[in-house]
Amino acid sequence: MTGGLPAAGLASGAAGGTDPVAALERLIGHSFSRAGLLSEALTHRSAAHGKRLGGRRGAGSNERLEFVGDRVLGLIIAEWLAERFPDEQEGELGPRLAHLVSRPVLASLAETIGLPRALSVAPNEARAGVKALATVLADAMEAVIGAIYLDAGLDVARHFVRTVWEPEMREQVLPPKDPKTALQEWLLARGLPLPNYEVTSREGPSHAPNFVISVRAAGQTGTGAAGSKRVAEREAAADLLRRLT
After folding, report:
1. What class, spelled out in words, does domain 10-170 have in CATH?
2. CATH number of 179-244
3. What percentage of the chain has pLDDT greater than the value 90?
């Protein structure tokens, strides 16, 4: 069953009720026929530590659903942008897409719908503030989209994405600038030194690395994580710009 997802009052709706997962399901506007999918989407890998499925550790976390949701979200947003801006070409649509599926936007929207309250993490990770990390929230948001898609198909996933992303889409008057360019221009306009990017960590195998990059400027620091240095730098620049502006 699907229903409307109000564009306003999402946070207050998530805050109401004693069961944050049930509250989130009501906000999604879809009753899951496979209830385990939503629970899996809301399970951080720290909470799934030690579980095994088919000999693999970490089964039951939201990483597989995140993988699916990332692709579904990209398709839905690309389709929406092509529909909304019929006269634009790839050079203009690309930056719009990159912004709308970026980690900062995903994390902000996850907070809007009350996702952190429903997210399951290990007690020690919760005490460390993992639920507030943009990377964790963005991954969980993609996992929720993946769960909706696998449970009910593309139409229901599209309804969810278009409702939650509507405020962000309305702001897309002009194609956004590349975050690194926008950050540099912001600093130069104020006579400030250019930003300094640094690789904080590199994890994962060579065929699927994950870079965490920090950028410092104007006394502030932004962070970004992605499978390539270039994308991680963009995420970090976008994070820093949000802090500065």
Report:
1. mainly alpha
2. 3.30.160.20
3. 43
